[in-house]
Amino acid sequence: xxxxxxxxxxxxxxxxxxxxxxxxxxxxxxxxxxxxxxxxxxxxxxxxxxxxxxxxxxxxxxxxxxxxxxxxxxxxxxxxxxxxxxxxxxxxxxxxxxxxxxxxxxxxxxxxxxxxxxxxxxxxxxxxxxxxxxxxxxxxxxxxxxxxxxxxxxxxxxxxxxxxxxxxxxxxxxxxxxxxxxxxxxxxxxxxxxxxxxxxxxxxxxxxxxxxxxxxxxxxxxxxxxxxxxxxxxxxxxxxxxxxxxxx
Length: 248
What we know:
Blueprint: E1 4-8, H1 34-46, E2 51-56, E3 59-69, H2 83-97, E4 103-111, H3 120-134, E5 139-144, H4 157-161, H5 173-180, E6 184-198, H6 199-206, E7 214-216, E8 225-228, E9 233-246
Parallel strand pairs: 4-5
Antiparallel strand pairs: 1-2, 2-3, 3-4, 5-9, 6-9, 7-8, 8-9
């Protein structure tokens, strides 16, 4: 992996249009979150110093998004239960108001499907930590989407998040990468991302019938999607796990 180059998007702005060209493993429904539709283009345009891109021979093989925000502003201080959604809203609210950030939050680290298993996720996390440190921040936080949780959609997130192996490290592979990098599990964000859609939309996203009331287990989802045919919609509320990375 000697040819791999990891930089910020600000250093290589010509790669902005290629961030989405790589094949990834995100389920289709996850690409229909309204907040991401609104704010991902703004991260690219307004916060390129916090967008990381990895290339190999000029080809994009991994991307990472993060945002600076004021965690310790009045009425905040604690990592929010609304996790991913809330930290994005805080970041762009702070940017609009000119509120000085004191913390960086990871938003996404994605590795191309053909390059998974090579340790790239850990390298991208290290680069994100170093990028924040170089800009004077003392902490990176991350609303982590546990990679093994889709295999256990009915397991409560509070139970899954703190499960460990015999060596004391987290049971979940992606949480394990964070802890090995120096992160500490802080808390659960029980409603980190909310995706709602009509029954027709969920059928198109998943290929499932969505014709019966109650929980629907969807491939790639961390918890079941709640289907309400009588109301014509279904709602997915994804829990994440907050991890804190001190940069001392």
